[in-house]
Amino acid sequence: MDVVCCGIIVADVVARPVRKFPQRGKLELSDEMGLFVGGCATNTAIDLAKLGISTGVMGKVGKDGFGDFVISEMRRHGLNIRGVKRDPGLEYFRDNGIRPS
């Protein structure tokens, strides 16, 4: 392995189009939603792997559906994920939109 990227591993939920930004605690409808892997460590590692560089990721993900998704996506991109730990107590999603960190 040539590079190890350490840091944030997330699942980004993207809804579009955004016709109206919802008020806190309120919901708005959108036509479509997508789930994408994200985070600085993950995005960098995927881009390096696309350039043919042997790349691994170190970080922590929840032991839930979002964690399953990002693990699957990192594998699909050929990343070494030996340094990724699963934590059942890790909050991967906040319904109020505020980051836990």
UniProtKB/TrEMBL annotation:
Residues 2-89 form the Carbohydrate kinase PfkB domain. It holds the Pfam family PfkB. GO terms for molecular function: kinase activity. Keywords: Kinase, Transferase. SUPFAM superfamilies: Ribokinase-like. GO terms for cellular component: cytosol. Transmembrane segments: none annotated. This is Carbohydrate kinase PfkB domain-containing protein. The lineage of its organism: Bacteria, Candidatus Desantisiibacteriota.
